[in-house]
Amino acid sequence: MKTILAEAEKSLVAIAALAFLCCALYPATVWTFSQTLFSFQARGSLLKRDGQVVGSSLLAQKVTAAKYFHPRPSCAGDGYDGTASGGSNLGPLSRKLIGDIGARARKYREENGLPPGYAVPADAVEASGSGLDPDISPENAMLQAPRVAVARHVPVEAIRRLVEQNTLPPALGFMGERRVNVLELNLALDQQR
To answer: Based on the domain organization, do 21 and 84 belong to the same domain?
Structure first.
């Protein structure tokens, strides 16, 4: 019986030590480290305009006004729903997916004054895996630039320069593609006034 009680005591001490280490010390260390060195990211990468939070640079938002750049399409919930992140899960042979992409391509061409059949960037018509991808390709942004310029009554070259200034390189210089964060670009547009 003494052996069982001694083993139980050792187990309880081990559980208490691991609980303190894993549930208190480690989270407190990570929280302190992140708040100290990466406070913007640790607080959700929130972007502000006039002191008010307007969104996160990590999540796309639904934008339909002609004077703003539009993000990738979303399949998250009813669209851009952060609580229902996810793709459509439709395969490449799905008639619904093919129809949706065709409809999105027609709408994109119409909104941006492109001729029928014009090849549009994939990110203009295909939703991302999360449905909340905040970035678009520079090619997508450049095709939207004339619409934004007309809606804002500014030269298209000024809008294209702004796109170039807001184009981010691949992560770590080699991972992924160049990209443009839509929310950051739209905030930069509003600051140009």
So the answer is: no
